[in-house]
Amino acid sequence: MSKRKTIHSILRIPVILLIVLIYLSPFYIVTTIALKPASDLSSYWKFPAHPILANFQTAIRDAGIMQALLRTAFITVCVVVLVVIVSALAAYPLARRNTRPNRLITAFILGVMMVPPLSILVSLYSIVVDMHGVNQYWAIILVMLTYQLPQGIFLYTNFIKAIPSALDEAAAIDGCSPLATFFCIIMPQLRPVTASVVILSGINCWNDFQFSRYILQAARMNTATLSISQFFSQTYSDLNSASAAAILAILPVVVAFLFLQKYFIQGMIDSSVK
Predict the structure, then answer these.
(1) Whose CA is closest to 216, among 77, 116, 68, 79?
(2) Distance between CA 272 and CA 274 in Å, rounded?
C-alpha cells in the first residue's frame, strides 16, 4: 500500500508541472511579445534581452485601455455587488424550505445555467432595444446580473444547506425575524462562498464580449475586451502593443484572485452538490 502511494506521489509531481506549464504558456508568450519591440522577430518563447515598456505606453495612449478598464471595473463591481445580495437572499428560503416548489425552482435554476449566452443574444438584444437600453450602463448591468444570478443562487443554496438550521431556530427563539436572522447569523458565515461568487461573477463580467458588443455600441463606452478587439483590428500588424493591452486587462483579475483564492477554494468545496 505504501509502495502504491509512493508511485502516486512520484507521478503526481510531473503531472502537476505539466498542467501548470500548459496554463502558464499563453501568459508567458503574451508577456514576451509585449516586452519586445515590433522589429524583434525572434521566437515568441525567447524572453527579450532588453525588455521595453513602449508597447504599454502605446496601448494606454492609442487603445484608451485605462479608460476602458475603469468602465469595466464600474460595471463589474455593480454586477458583483447585486449578484451577491440578490443571490444570497434568494438562496436562503430555497435552502431552508425543502418543498416541492423550491425543488422545482432549484432544478430550473440549474437548467438555466446550461443555456449558452449566444443562444439568447438576439432576443435579449431586441428586449434591450425596446427598453431603450442601447449604450446605457444600466442595461449591460441588468443583462449581466440576470445571467450571473443562477450561478450565484446555486452556490449559495448548497452552502447554506450545510449550515445547521438550529441556528435559525435559536435566533427565532430570541425574537429575530427571518430577515434579521439572515443578515446577523447566516450572512457572516457565507464568506467562503461569497469569495467564490465574487470571483466567478467578476471574471465573467470582466471578460464579457458578446453582451457588451451589442449593448455598448458607442466607442466612448467600450469595455476592456471591446477596446482590445477594436485596437487589434485597427493595428493588426502591431501585435506587441495588443499584447501589452491584454496584459493590462488581465492584471486586475489576477490580483483579485490572489487575494481571494483561499476563500474561493473553500467556497467551491463547501458549495459542491451533496
Answers:
(1) 68
(2) 6
Asked whether residue 84 is assigned to any structural domain, the reply reads: yes
- Total structural domains in the chain? 2
Listed range (20-24, 153-157, 235-239, 245-249) with the worst mean pLDDT:
235-239
Q: Which domain holds residue 24?
A: 1-52
Q: What pLDDT is attached to residue 183?
A: 83
Q: Residue 148 falls within a domain, yes or no?
A: yes
C-alpha cell at 188: 457572516
Do 16 and 120 lie in one domain? The reply is: no
Tell me whether residue 38 is exposed, middle or buried, using C-beta atoms within 10 angstroms of its C-beta: 0 to 12, 13 to 18, 19 or more.
Answer: middle
Q: What is the pTM of this model?
A: 0.82
Does 42 share its domain with 75?
no
